[in-house]
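Here is one chain, start to finish.
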Amino acid sequence: MDEISHKNFKQIASKLQRVVECPVCLGPLRPPVSLCDRGHGVCPECKKTLQQCPLCRSPYSNTVSPLTLNQILEALPRRCRYEPRGCLVTFWAGEDHEQFCCYRSTKCRVFGCVWYEAVQDILAHIRDSHSPPYNVLETQHQFFSYPNFDPNKESKAYTPIVISNTLLWQVTQMDLSRRKLLITFYQLPLERSQDELFVVVSLEKDSFQFQYTVRVSKRDEGDEDINSLDSVMAVPQSMLPKLIQTPGGLVSSLKVIKITK
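Its structure:
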């Protein structure tokens, strides 16, 4: 048998990828595949939403995933699951392209905003739609003001911070059950990077100051319990009256530090 050229191999792989297309998400099938009684396959994530096959209405009574098909899918180069949105990247099993794909969806965390679009568009959305009083900045050292902050009221707010082309979400929560003001940050990954970010947070009034350095987490969303994040600044509720400006509410100074590995 003649050796297959690189060009022909890519054509064969492309045709195979088109054959093994999931009828639900319209992307390439992902192992382990679930088959209906007539042999139509769907991705494991898509299967969670189905009671019967979307193509023939047959049930999914076969609980054994097809080993050979799964092995073939693992060996093939993969098309990005966001291909229907425009991504043309092909990658191998084990590579993390989809974790950083600029076509994946994310939501704007600003209170009341319903924007939910591609990651690559969120910086433009924030700059265009959320001017001050939201803190959209292009500096590494800035003062923030929270004029309506009430230390006796349960609250949670997300504030976007733009440093160059990096988006951070500041999460500020007044947790009455723990009697603490909690502040943390997470970064929306827009590209693969080994850099680590830290934010030096200073709350101060006159000569009194409370300072803490928070390591920035990297994640797409931030709905988890704030205490589950990697690094959290916790200010005791009893200390807050010493930090609240009159007028002016709570004022903090933020300094972003980048460490390149």
